[in-house]
Structure formats: structure tokens, C-alpha cells
Amino acid sequence: xxxxxxxxxxxxxxxxxxxxxxxxxxxxxxxxxxxxxxxxxxxxxxxxxxxxxxxxxxxxxxxxxxxxxxxxxxxxxxxxxxxxxxxxxxxxxxxxxxxxxxxxxxxxxxxxxxxxxxxxxxxxxxxxxxxxxxxxxxxxxxxxxxxxxxxxxxxxxxxxxxxxxxxxxxxxxxxxxxxxxxxxxxxxxxxxxxxxxxxxxxxxxxxxxxxxxxxxxxxxxxxxxxxxxxxxxxxxx
Length: 237
Known about the structure:
The structure is a single chain. With 237 residues, the chain is of the alpha/beta class. The protein has helices spanning 2-10, 30-36, 40-45, 52-56, 79-92, 111-115, 134-149, 174-190, 202-212, 217-236, and strands at residues 17-19, 47-49, 61-65, 76-78, 98-101, 119-122. The strands form 2 sheets. The protein has a 4-stranded parallel β-sheet, with helices on one face. The protein is globular. It starts with a helix and ends with a helix.
């Protein structure tokens, strides 16, 4: 974590969020502080949360960093493409927030973690030996992000004015999309389209479908209205 904080600061970033770290005092651990090598302020300000859902609640575009292929999941891109997408997202979205999500060095990200993200991202390393620790992978990720944001000839990489888009037209935050998915599942059960005893892969496929759609807040509100109507109609019948 100390090395990760250093990687972030060298590229001009400062937000580090830790999900259920193994050591509860990791942000003040002497070895972590030593490895941060001048980036102890990033480590000290690191936010510690219990779940990835909580970490991604305010995020509007999340990249899951993984080297393993997945049968189901969000669209796949490499880290350079991800950086370009992040740059465009921030330019188009006044209140946009981008996150790069990494798992533990031992086991990486689970399918459940990846399902909470909008894109799968990989580093095109040597296919015969692609092992990188978290700090190394993060250093490459933030370098690409910085390079994309500071592209020559483009001095307007920061988000536009807050009133550039109506609030409802902004990309929906992760917690709003997750609430929609919960509501959607309830509605599908109510109209007997989904059998909770034999769900098969319906909800994971629905999750990936909605995740690819880059829903706005207005669209999330509209779909939740549809869910409410489905549930009410099913109850009356």
C-alpha cells in the first residue's frame, strides 16, 4: 500500500480507497510509510471501507484491472484504451469520477467484483509471464491516465463547468445502478419472469447489459418507475 501511494502521487493523483484491508492499521504501518517514500500524505488520507460497493458508490466509470479472461463480464479494453475512455468521460461529464479497481496480489478480483465495474482492463504484458504486483500495475495505470489527460495540444482535460449538463443527463453513480438492479430483480420475480429458486444466469446477464449501457440518472429513474409499475400490477392481479 505504501508503494501504491507513491505510484499515485508521482503521477499527480491523490485518491486511494482500501476495501477491507488485512491490516486495520495499514495507513499508519511503519513499513507502508517507509515504502511510500514521500507519499505518506496519500497514505494518511486513504479512505478505508468494508465493501467494494461502498468504494464505488460515487464512481461513474470503473475499470476492473485483471489479466484473466472471463466468460461473462463488461467490455474488455487495454490500459491505454481505458485511459482514453477515462479522459473522454471526464471531458463529457462535469461530475464524473473514474476508478481503477485492483484485487489482492494473491487472487486478484472475483467475478462479483468485476460485475460492479463498467469495463475490464488489462495490461498487454508478456503472455508467458504477465505477473505484476499491485504497485507495479497501478504505476502503469496512473501513468497512462496522466499521459491521456495531459495530451499535447489539449489544455482542457479538466471537467467542464458544473452546469454544462442537466443533472439527470449525467452518468448514474454506481450505487444508483446497483439499487436499480435490486429493484429490477424484485420486479422480474413479481411478474414470474425470474424464478428465484432457479435463476440460472439471468441476473448476471442483466447486470452486464445495464453496465454496458452507461445509464444516465434520468434513465435509472425511468427504469425504476417501470419496476414499480410491474410490481404493483403483479400484486393487483
